[in-house]
Amino acid sequence: MKTVPFCYLLLSAMLPLAAQTGGSFLLRGGTVHTVSGPDIPGGSVLVRDGRITDVGPKLAAPKGVRVIDVKGLHVYPGLIDSATQLGATEIGSVRETSDVMDLGVFKPQLRIAAALNPASEHLPVTRANGVTTAVVQPSGGIIPGQAALIHLDGWTTEEMLIMPAVAMRLDYPHKQPGGGGVPFAELKKQYEAQVRELNEYFESARRYQKAKAVAAPDFKTDLALEAMLPVLEGRLPLLVRAEREKTIREAIAFAEKQKVRMILQQAVECWKVAAELKAKGIMVTLARTLSLPSDEDEPYDRPFTTPAELFKAGVKFSFATYGPGAGNNPSNLPYEAAAAVPFGLSPEEALKAVTLNAAAIWGVEDQIGSIDRNKLADLIVTDGDPLETRTHVLQMFINGRPVDLNNKHKRLYEKFVNRP
Amino acid sequence: MIRTACLFLAVSLLPAAPPLVIRNANLITITKGNFRGAVLIDGGKIAAFGDKVVVPPNARVIDAGGQYVTPGIIDPHSHVGTDSVNESALAVASMTGIGDVLNPENIGIYRALAGGVTTIAVLHGSADPIGGKCEIIKTRWGKDAEGIRFEGAPPYIKFALGENVKRSGGVWAALIAPGNLRYPATRMGVEDVFRQAFTDARAYQKAWREYDENRKRGVEALPPRRDLTLEPLVEVLERKRLVHTHAYRADEILMIMRVAEEFGFKINVLVHVLEGYKVAREIAAHGASASTFSDWWAYKMEAYDAIPYNAAIMAKKGVLVSLNSDNAELMRRMNTEAAKVMKYGGVSENDALAMITLNPAKQLGIEDRVGSIETGKDADLVIWDRHPLSNYAKVQKVLVDGELYFDRDTDIGSRPARNKQRQELLEKAKARQNKAAPENKASAAGRPQ
Questions:
Q1: Contact present, B405 and B378 (Cβ < 8 Å)
Q2: Do the chains contact at A412 and B277, CB–CB below 8 Å?
Q3: d(Cα B245, Cα B268) in Å, to the nearest integer?
Q4: Exposed, middle or buried: residue B363 (CB in 10 Å: 0-12, 13-18, 19+)?
Q5: What is the DSSP string of B230-299?
Q6: Nearest CB neighbour to B392, from listed A299, A341, A416
């Protein structure tokens, strides 16, 4: 704790200066963990106008560029959470504070980017643990809507958005085993109806696409089907939630049939189809590592070993905090990754999965995810391994802007620890 | 009958298990410092520990190979290992008891064991202001319901406040199922339920006292009618039954302590107690202890001011603090929950580990048996491959009462055989279903409903 209040002071002192220089500074003397290449002990990172312009063992500060001494500390790229509802829901049980789930089953026109509250208390709380970037998703129905890729900082929602539409979410239909006493035959009927509706929906979208292309005389704009066009044209990936092996296989077959790009998510049993995922080049955002095995007779460590198995199979994957498990707490992203390490994943690969590989999955690896020239200066400075709980994040930069690491929790701490 | 008797005879004639020693270990004792050395276990108890342990020649040996050994983790608030959790039809459900519905085959017990947990307080849920009686168990996986009980632990009862208990009285509950509407619907009503229940308990206590006195003096009288709801509350009034209260907001924490003071008893443990940091001084003055989550927050309105510094602030202000899981998943990694208390508020390594070992033992009144590595205590021990406060640590072995109940190598080694058995059972079920209903092939391959 001793170092933390000191950092508040440091950061508040830096803010006006950063605004003047437009995010130009030299981090000097820390261990630079580039993620894309080897670590650089005693290294430097030069940032000009919000971008990384140089990385190396010994860089001189150009004239007028402020030097920030990070000797004895560590510099990492900011962490990326591949599935959250950050900013779109504030208090889980209070409906009025949640904008993640609208009515209906097929809602591709809905954009989570239209429901992000930049004043959400969750954003600074999550930042404090080193997360600079997150995918925010809508939920509910078969096509809940469009997910967004955001920076966890900005005066307005627009300043936070990296990609307002990063993927179209699809929850592939499945038979929920033991679904509230509903007989199996009934579940099967529901599931078959849903699969039929899903296929028909894609058919409608294709007919709409054709009608639009030929400017059919009775063509009328339909915002839902219009929103499907980037998916059909392969410009927007389909983010498919499929948990069980059977559902995953069906989802893969569906995406192939529809000739759309897919990213698999919350794929609990993805380890069973790892070879196919590798062969087809399908990338995965994992179900939570910090969750229970889905069946009683599975090994107790199943969720912990899945990441290592995917790695061995050569599948690209990232970690996420959204989904079944104990509490949805995006500030615990580093620990979702760390939990795979004792069970076979190397710490380096765990880190990569919350930085560079996540960036690759979301199609922004030329922009973020590692400390390399020309990338956005999304950086964190820590006193140790960011995947270890005991490590403190001491400084953060998003787009080269120093970010305030204070939050509601720290404010309440300061207030009540000093209560007479 | 005869067979049972023979078996009993055979067991009692067996020679006691030879002593067991865990050597070459980094011991974290919690109360006696850290050593590079050994633990000697005899008769299920810790017989000696430290860097100068004399190993008896007949001792079995586990070489820890420099790994870490801690006391078993104690989770003071969980719901694993039960067949039911809430009797939510009543606001006062003190006649119920978790001890009656223990399920020793619940897989949650094994998973907790594999996370280093050796003692679990299994509580009634939080649907009622006054919930049922609780049970403390040890993770003796494979033993029956009697065999997992923590024998001799003090009895206690669960209270609950705030949103969970109000829910049954809410407008939504009335709309969904009008017949289920249940008082209370506000925090005013919650206080009233407690004051009424303990007013009744006092009257009941008085009636029995008068009857007992009359009988002593030889006066003939009819005994009062037994009331199984009030009996546990009289035990609370007489401080023979400990009280664990689920609480969130600072105001309701004060409320329940004041009600207890009015009726002359004590709240022993405030659980969850997410705003405890706002009234830590008052909690310490009442003499209550606190068991909290490390960093859960904002999942409901009364958790919006929850902060991960809660444990540290309360500890600093003189409250005995532990961490609890309330969740079968979180329970598997209480070691890293302890690490969060170091991160948020600067608690020391040893104090953080005490919050998942010794402190919950004290809160449950079982610290003479468990919670630290000390001579004479139960040999409930965990071997970790790294320092347990690292996220990269995992549990290798767990002993309860000196017996090895979890061994990672054994678990992994048994997987091929278990898979085979599972496949055989599936084949059997499939064959049988196909035979019984050949026309219904689709459901034959389905999961059991």
A1: no
A2: yes
A3: 8
A4: buried
A5: HHHHHHHHTT-SEEEEEE-SHHHHHHHHHHHHHTT----EEEE-TTGGGSHHHHHHHT-EEEE-SS--SS
A6: A341
Q: CA-based angle B309:B313:B317, to the nearest 5?
A: 175
**Using one digit for the tens of pLDDT, what is the confidence trace for B72-94?**
999 999 999 999 999 988 999 99
Q: Min CA distance, A243 vs chain B (Å)?
A: 15
Q: What does the pLDDT look like over B121-136, one tens digit per residue? A: 999 999 999 999 999 9
Q: DSSP characters for A2-60?
A: THHHHHHHHHHHHHHHHHHHTS-EEEEEEEE--SSS--EEEEEEEEETTEEEEEESS-P
Q: How far apart are CA A166 and CA A263, in angstroms?
A: 11
Q: Which uninterrupted H or E stretch holds B88?
A: none
Residue B170's nearest CA partner among B191, B192, B187 is B187
The terminus-to-terminus CA distance of chain A in angstroms comes to: 20
Q: Cα separation of A165 and A237, whole Å?
A: 10
Give the number of A-B residue pairs with CB atoms closer than 8 Å.
Answer: 132
Partners of B270 in the β-ladder: B245, B290
Sheet containing B117-122: give its strands across: B73-78, B117-122, B135-138
Please tell me the distance from the alpha carbon of residue B75 to that of residue B413, in angstroms, as a whole number: 28
B197 and B204 Cβ atoms separated by less than 8 Å: no
CA distance B251 to chain A (A): 15
Output the CA–CA distances (angstroms, integers) from residue B435 to B428, B432, B438, in the order listed: 11, 5, 6
Number of H helices, E strands in chain B: 16, 17
pLDDT in tens, A235-271: 999 999 999 999 999 999 999 999 999 999 999 999 9
Which residues in chain A are closer than 8 Å to B277, comparing Cβ atoms?
412-413, 416-417
- Residues 6 or more apart whose Cβ sits within 8 Å of residue B55: B21, B23, B38, B40, B61
Q: How far apart are CA B260 and CA B389, in angstroms?
A: 37
B85 Cβ contact list (under 8 Å, min separation 6):
B79, B124, B125
Average pLDDT value over all residues in chain B: 92
Residue with tokens 């953060």, as numbered in its chain = A396
Return all residues near A7 (Cβ < 8 A) that are at least 6 apart: A394, A395, A405
Cβ–Cβ < 8 Å for A406, A392: no
Question: Quick check: ipTM above 0.95?
Answer: no
Helix residue ranges per DSSP H, B90-239: 107-113, 145-148, 163-166, 171-176, 187-216, 230-237
The C-alpha atoms of residue A77 and residue A399 are separated, in whole angstroms, by 11
3-state secondary structure string, B91-110? Answer: CECCCCEHHHCECCCCHHHH
- Do the beta carbons of residue B87 and residue B93 sit within 8 Å? yes
Chain A residues closer than 8 Å to B411 by CB: 299-300
Q: How far apart are CA A26 and CA A63, in angstroms?
A: 11
Q: Which amino acid is at B383?
A: I
Whose CA is closest to A123, among A155, A168, A77?
A: A155
Q: Are B129 and B159 in contact (CB under 8 A)?
A: yes
> Tokens standing for A27?
């981090």
**What pLDDT, in 10s, does the model give residues A51-78?**
999 999 989 999 999 999 999 999 999 9
CB B311 within 8 A of CB B295: no
Query: How is residue A39 written in tokens?
Result: 């670590």
Q: Which residues pair with B382 in a beta bridge?
A: B70, B398
Instruction: Check if the beta carbon of residue B371 is closer than 8 Å to that of residue B30.
Output: yes
Residue A333 CB contacts under 8 Å (≥ 6 apart), including other chains: A79, A81, A126, A129, A131, A319, A320, A321, A354
Backbone phi and psi for residue B49, each to the nearest 5 degrees, phi listed first = -155, 160
**B329: nearest CB among A325, A328, A389:** A325
**Under DSSP, is residue B136 helix (H, G, I), strand (E, B) or coil?**
strand
Contacting residues for A415 by C-beta, under 8 A, at least 6 apart: none
